[in-house]
Structures are given as structure tokens and as C-alpha cells.
Amino acid sequence: MGRAFLYVILGGGVAAGYAALELSRGGISRGELCIISEEPVVPYERPALSKGFLLPEGPIIIFTILLV
Asked: Please, which residues bridge with residue 34 across strands?
């Protein structure tokens, strides 16, 4: 027979990590929480991406190619 958990979090992203952290701060006991995810690693905080990193500084040049 399978194991029963009091709390189950679906997904292993950053939100899952924060949800688990808040539940643990709330006083849940060991073994009451399960995170179900396809992620190969436990949730971790990823650095935020900024528009400055994703977009180049200065003017943006857009090329259009017309195929005839």
C-alpha cells in the first residue's frame, strides 16, 4: 500500500520550494509533506533574469528578409 501525506505540493519549481518552506515554518512534522515533480533536482532559487541581460544595450536593428 502507498504512503499517505498530509500535504502534497505538485510541481517542483520555485513556488513549490517557497510553499514547502512556509509549511515547515508553520510547524509541520517530518514526513507530512511530499513534493511531486518531474524536476531532477530539489527546488532551488533561480536568479531573476533582467531585461538588461536579455536585451542588448543600444538600438535594436531588425532585419526583414523577403523570399521571392
From this structure: 8
